[in-house]
Design a protein that fits this description.
This is Restriction endonuclease. By secondary structure, this protein is of the alpha+beta class. The chain has 20 helices and 40 strands. Helices cover 33% and strands 24% of the residues. Helix 10 runs antiparallel to helix 14. About 12% of the residues have low confidence.
Length: 959
């Protein structure tokens, strides 16, 4: 099972560079990297693998699987591998315990003599793999675990060390028969269909449908891909490759593209080759044919694995290109060569050439299983109740076509011609049977390609009728279909409520008892107090302004959420992370009708108790002096620009303020303890220095020499001078109200505009289609001295300079002490030289720490982008150039803020002392800033990224 999607995709991209010997790589370096790539791929699939192991003979890769141990030798040379290297691997296998299997992976394959020598020799204990096996593993077309099982079975049962990938996956089963099976629609019409008798039980998750160049149906079964002629009732295997999934595509040159596992393969001339990687989830790759002749693969994505993306297939593994989609999808199809229509399961969404949302069309009740396009304006969807719905994108209307008495999933749909479709499902009455229906949509395509508008049907009778589509016998005697539909306007669509039993009717009309209302109110109060401490202050400010009336407080936020869901929001509008949490408690009060949370309707006592809990938590925070109680003072305080590193006040929560108050009290206690020790030690060393001066004046040193006098005074005078400096600095800080003394006044910060409320955002919403923000040029400026974010609309996090200044002070005292010891003590010359070298090292280290203390690393995350101030200079990352931002661990276990942006190679791969952003070649990303050095908690940094970065930030749970 694929466990590390990010590493897998990175290895696929890196494989293309290895094939081309990119970036000046030598063949020897490629071979060494190939060993590591194999081990990383096996690790990504959950196997324990290590590369470049040295023991009795050097081993390229070792790994274990299913209780067996494998040692792998890899060769990437210009020619085929002969007998010698294989015999060497066999000797290494003999040196191990019984049960160890050798694997020889040669990219260019093996000579005929080498294969014959292994097969006809002694006991077979070596498997031979070539480039086709490796690319099958790398792409996920045959995951490593399955490949080693298949190769081991072939070696064990047939005595073949080398078996081509085509033979490993070829099935040998009989051809299923085709029988006519009429399937009635859910309306009054009748569909003539054909049922394919699958051999054994067919896994519904893997079935799919496609069309060949002649329009025949291509059905994907567990045993392979079957071509079916529904008129002649004939079938034949066109790609006998077991384990394929979903639909297939016939190319112009007569080849057949198919999906299997995580990859995409090509069948041509009785030979199988792997051409691309696919979806991150197993058996979830879906092929899409573009009108321009290119082929794409849809990775529908999932919340816990990877985002949805489109993959443009190349000619071999590693040539594919990924384009991330703005939302998770269930089905997709190309409208034109640049525009795409997708479904998120409930609605149809039209995407532009930049894969941004252009429009959203609601679908009838039901989930969308599949969709296909008839032309640039018409889309047909298959719902989970196995009904067909025709959409006219230009007229912005939809019309039901009919439904089938077959079950789904799988539920598959594909266009055959401009007026006919193939629909696939499972036969309800016959286990293991797949039903394929050819549907002719007659009379739907006038000359201009538009669907004629019809008057709205009347609502209120037993059902509203639409004129049935005329039944016309299609060419070549194909099965015809009379489609009759029932149309219900969206406004009149209501959920069907089950009838209430007679004995329960009276109980349903009874109002809840007093105890039940009190229990609900107490539950709401408890959950309201818990929710209040997690709300940001800008949300609580609105709650206070609404006098804790839930409906008035949440209405603008609910409208804001509705604009985002409907696709009407302007670019940059994001959903606050606290709003879905509130919607889980308050349901329709916080969530718009399109969201699942809106199905929850809390009781009135619960809402009253929830509001009381919010009020009680707020009043407790006011009594604790965490927030100002006056509304005007609160509004000014929330909008106060930052005066020190941290989150803006508007983004803080009551829980943050409580934690900060506890930390402040604890810090104040330790500061007074440290202050007392500092003053006591200063007094102690001061008295000792006075005594040392008295002894020097009276000449009581034993022996009374100048060296002893200097050393004795230095031992007390130097620490006293350092402690006295710290004591004076601390006294000035204490008189300054706890702040460090400033040498010059700081210019006041300008005020900024108030944070826009949802009403203001709604007023500024544009009705024009959304477009991507302008991308910056390739030669963009990496450095920006002035602040890139508006005042007050950014969060700042900085490294603590106090620790560096402490190190500087201690090092300075040591340097002075060593400078006194070297000329005044009578020690060997070698020892003095070593002490001098150590002192020189301290000087260099002190200079570096002083540089970091004067210019500590500072990270600012704001409305316009991310800005980093480091000792090596300021750096600027506007949101327009950032595709994704994550917090992740890098080498050495240090946690960094990593960004995927345009032209990351402009940054250096290594940084000098003091840090700064650096390029990560393996990730094709930039390590923007180390988080370990910042004096901030990671969840506060994550909150700032989520607030200002929106969808650009990916939390660890979604990465």
């Amino acid at each position: 099972m694929l466990q590390d999607t990010i590493r897998w995709r990175r290895l696929v991209a890196e494989y293309s560079e290895l094939c081309q010997l990119g970036a000046g790589m030598t063949p020897n370096a490629r071979g060494q990297r190939f060993n590591g790539m194999i081990a990383e791929l096996l690790t990504a699939y959950g196997l324990r693998a290590k590369s470049d192991q040295r023991s009795v003979g050097e081993l390229d890769v070792v790994f274990s699987y299913a209780g067996r141990r494998f040692i792998l030798e890899a060769k990437w040379e210009r020619g085929k591998t002969g007998t010698g290297p294989i015999a060497k691997l066999q000797r290494r296998v003999e040196q191990r315990m019984a049960g160890v299997t050798g694997v020889f992976l040669a990219i260019k394959g093996f000579t005929d003599d080498a294969i014959a020598e292994v097969d006809k020799g002694r006991r077979l204990d070596v498997l031979l793999l070539d480039q086709s096996h490796w690319e099958a593993m790398l792409s996920g077309f045959v995951p490593p675990q399955e490949l080693f099982d298949l190769a081991t079975d072939a070696a064990s049962f047939h005595g073949r060390a080398y078996t081509p990938i085509t033979e490993l996956l070829r099935h040998r089963t009989e051809t299923p028969t085709v029988t006519p099976e009429p399937v009635a629609t859910g309306m009054d019409g009748l569909l003539r269909v054909a049922t394919v008798r699958a051999v054994g039980h067919t896994d519904g998750r893997r079935t799919g449908i496609g069309t060949d160049r002649d329009g025949s149906a291509l059905i994907t079964l567990e045993q392979g891909i079957l071509a079916v002629d529904l008129v002649a009732r004939r079938s034949q295997w066109v790609a006998p490759v077991f384990g394929c999934s979903n639909g297939s595509i016939a190319t112009a040159d007569g080849a057949l593209l198919m999906t299997r596992g995580h990859g995409v393969g090509r069948w041509a001339g009785g030979r199988l080759t792997v051409v691309s990687s696919g979806a991150a989830r197993l058996d979830d790759s879906h092929l899409l044919a573009n009108p321009d002749g290119s082929t794409w693969c849809l990775d529908r994505g999932s919340a816990d694995v990877t985002p949805a993306c489109l993959i443009r297939l190349g000619t071999q593994v590693g040539d594919e290109k990924w384009r991330e989609l703005p939302l998770a999808v269930t089905a997709a199809a190309w409208l034109t060569s640049t525009r795409l229509v997708v479904s998120d399961g409930t609605d149809l969404i039209q995407l532009s050439s930049q894969l941004t949302v252009e429009r959203r069309l609601p679908t009838p009740a039901g989930s969308v299983l599949a969709l296909t396009t008839l032309n640039e304006q018409q889309v047909v969807t298959l719902l989970d109740d196995m009904s067909l719905v025709l959409f006219d994108l230009q007229a912005n209307e939809h019309r039901p076509l009919g439904s089938f008495s077959i079950s789904g999933p799988p539920g598959a749909l594909i266009r055959r011609t401009d007026e006919s479709l193939y629909v696939m499902g499972r036969h309800r009455a016959k286990d293991g049977h797949v039903t394929v229906a050819e549907v002719e949509i007659v009379g739907q395509h006038p000359a201009n390609g538009r669907i004629p508008r019809r008057p709205e049907p009347e609502v209120g009778g037993s059902r509203s009728r639409v004129t049935p589509v005329e039944a016309v016998r299609p060419a070549r005697g194909r099965a015809r279909a009379t489609v009759e539909a029932i149309a219900v306007p969206p406004a009149a669509r209501k959920p069907i409520e089950p009838p209430v039993a007679a004995d329960a009717a009276g109980h349903a009309n009874q109002s809840p008892s007093t105890d039940e209302r009190l229990a609900e109110q107490r539950r709401g109060y408890a959950e309201g107090t818990t929710a209040a401490v997690a709300l940001p202050l800008y949300a609580l400010e609105g709650l206070v302004a609404a006098n804790f009336e839930i409906a008035n407080w949440l209405k603008p936020w609910r409208d804001h959420w509705d604009r985002i869901v409907s696709g009407q929001a302007v670019h940059g509008e994001t959903l606050p992370d606290w709003l879905p949490s509130i919607a889980q408690l308050l349901g329709a009060h916080a969530a718009p009708p399109r969201v699942a949370h809106a199905q929850l309707t809390p009781s009135v006592p619960y809402v009253i108790g929830f509001a009381d809990g919010l009020r009680a938590a707020w009043q407790d925070a006011v009594r604790s002096r965490l927030v100002p109680g006056d509304r005007e003072t609160l509004s000014q305080w929330v909008r106060t620009p930052l005066s020190q590193p941290g989150l803006p006040p508007a983004l803080h929560t009551i829980a943050d303020l409580q934690t900060a108050a506890k930390r402040t009290r604890r810090s104040r206690t330790w500061k007074w303890i440290g202050r007392g020790l500092l003053w006591l030690l200063t007094l102690l060393f001061g008295v000792s220095e006075i005594a040392a001066i008295a002894i020097t004046v009276t000449g009581q040193w034993e022996p009374n020499t100048a060296a002893n006098a200097v050393i004795g005074n230095a031992c007390f005078g130097i620490p006293f001078a350092g402690l006295l400096w710290f004591a004076v600095w601390d006294l000035r800080r204490l008189l300054n109200g706890g702040q460090p003394p400033r040498r010059s006044p700081t210019p006041p910060q300008t005020s900024h505009e108030d944070r826009p409320l949802p009403e203001a955002q709604a007023a500024s919403t544009s009705t024009e289609p959304l477009t991507e923000p302008p991308r910056e040029d390739v030669d963009r400026t990496l450095s920006r001295a002035d602040r890139g974010n508006p005042p007050g609309e950014y969060a700042a996090f900085a490294a603590s300079s106090g620790m560096y200044w402490t190190v500087v002070g201690i090092n300075t005292l040591l340097i002075i002490l060593l400078a006194i010891i070297i000329p005044t003590t009578d020690i060997p010359l070698v020892a003095k030289a070593l002490i001098g070298l150590f002192a020189a090292f301290l000087v260099l280290a002190t200079v570096g720490f002083a540089n970091m203390a004067r210019n500590p690393t500072k990270l600012e995350i704001g409305r316009n982008g991310i800005q980093v101030y480091s000792p090596s200079g300021p750096y600027w990352f506007p949101w327009q150039v950032l595709n994704r931002v994550e917090m992740m661990r890098l080498e050495g276990g240090t946690r960094h803020l990593v960004g995927w942006c345009t032209n990351p190679e402009l940054f250096p791969e290594s940084v000098s002392l003091g840090g700064g952003p650096r390029f990560l070649p393996k990730l094709k990303a930039v390590a923007i800033c180390p988080l370990n050095v910042l004096h901030a908690r990671r969840h506060l940094v994550a909150r700032a990224l989520q607030t200002y970065g929106g969808s650009c930030y990916r939390s660890p749970s979604n990465s």
